[in-house]
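Entry type: protein chain
Record version: 2
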Amino acid sequence: MFNKILVANRGEIALRAIRECREMGIGSVAMYSDADADALFMKHADEAFPLGDPEPAASYLNMDKIFDIADKSKAEAIYPGYGFLAENPQFVEACESRGIEFIGPPSKSMHAAKPKHKSRDLMKSHGIPVSPGSDGAIEDESDMAKAFEIAEGIGYPVIVKPSGAGGGIGMKVANSKEELEGAMGYAKSLGSETFGLAAFYLEKYVTHAKHIEFQVMADKKGNTVYVSDRECSVQRRYQKLIEEAPSPVMTPELRREMGDTAVQIAKLLNYVNALTVEFIYDMDEKKYYFNECNTRLQVEHPLTELLTGLNLVKEQIRIAAGEELGYSQDDIQLRGWSIECRINAEDPFMNFMPAPAKIEAWDPPGGFGVRLDAGVYAGYTMPFYYDPLAAKLLSWGNTREEAVATMKRALKEFHIEGIKTNIPFHLVALDNEVFRNGDYTTHFVDEQKLVKQLREMKKAGEIA
C-alpha cells in the first residue's frame, strides 16, 4: 500500500480522497490555488502546497507544478478525482515515466477510449451496439460531403459530436441539410480552437432517449465487474442536474445485458480501475447504444455506493496499489434506491447563470437516508474560476418513492444564505408527474418547461 498520495484536485472530491487516505493510514498531500487558500480540503490534508495563480491552466492543469509538488512531498501516487487532468493521457504518461502511480487507468487504455470516434469504431468492430452514423472521423470537405449522404441514409434528425469534446460541449442536433451544414462547421471550428482536434462524427439522433451509465471496476489481475447502473437523464444543455440509481426502466435482464456489455468494453480497452460506460437507451425501440467511456470516477458515483455499500474511492486506491477486487459479479447486490441532486451556486431564474459568492449561512439537512458530499462551509467564498458545484445531496430509500420523499424533505431543510442555488429547480423537477412516473427523457427539462414554471412560481410569490 502507498505511504503518501498527492490529491491533484480541489473541492468536495479532493476532501473525499483526503478522508479516505486518513482512514487507510495513508499520508495525504493537497495542492491549492490562491483562490482555494481557505478551502476545506486543504485544511484537512496532512500537507498542502500552493499552486499560485488561480486560473486553471496555471494551477490545477499545470503539470510542471503538480510534479514539482509530487517530488517535494515524496508522494508515491496521484489521485486525480474528476475533471482537470483526470482524463488526460499525456498526464498519465508523465506519471508512468516518473514512476508515480496514477490512481486510474493506464495511458494506453485512455488512448483507446479517446477520441470518441475512435472508441465508437472500436466498439462497432466488436459487435457493441452503436447508433447508426458515420464510420471514422469527419475532418475535410470530402468527408463533409459524405456526411450529407449518411444523414439522408439514416434519416434526420442527426447529431454532430466533436471527437475531442466532453460534457456535451459542441454537440448539435440537425433536422435538415441546412442545419447539418451549420452544425458541422460549428463542431469543426470549436473542436479545433478548444480541443486542438477538428474531427467530429455523426449519429442518428434518438429523440426519446434516456442517458444510462454503468459503473465498472477492474483490477490489475483482469478481474472485471459491473457494479450498478445509474440514470442521468435530467440534464440542461447536456449538463447533469439530477441522477438516480437504479434507472426506472431497468429490469434484471436488461441490467445483466447492458452490464455484460460494459464489462466487455472494459476488457477491450485492457482497462484497470474505475470506468464509466455511458449508453443511450431508446425509449421507443427499447434498444441501447454505446455512447462513450469516461475513464474516471463520475461525479455521481455516490449513488452506486449507497446501493452497494462499496467505497469506490478506497477501491480505486486499493486497485492502484495492486490489490485484487474482493468481490465477484455474483457478490454485487443492489439495495434500495438513491437520488442525487447537484447543489450548484447558480441562479435558476437567470438561465442557471453561475453565482459564486461568499456563503453567509450553511445549514445542511440530516436524518435517515440523507448523505451530503460538500467542500464548502459558512464564511467560505466560492471562486468563480471553477465549476459552481457546492455539494452533492443524496437520499436513499427502500423504494424510489421513499428516496424521492426523503430528497424533497432534505432539500426543503437545506438552509443556505449568500449564494443563489438551484434547489428551487430540484423541488419543481421532483414534483413533476413525468419524473415521478420515471418516463422522463433527456428532453425532460425543456419539454416540461421547468424553467418557465420556476419563473412563474417566483412571480406569483410561491418561491422566495
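Comment: The chain has three domains: 4-103, 132-204, 209-459.
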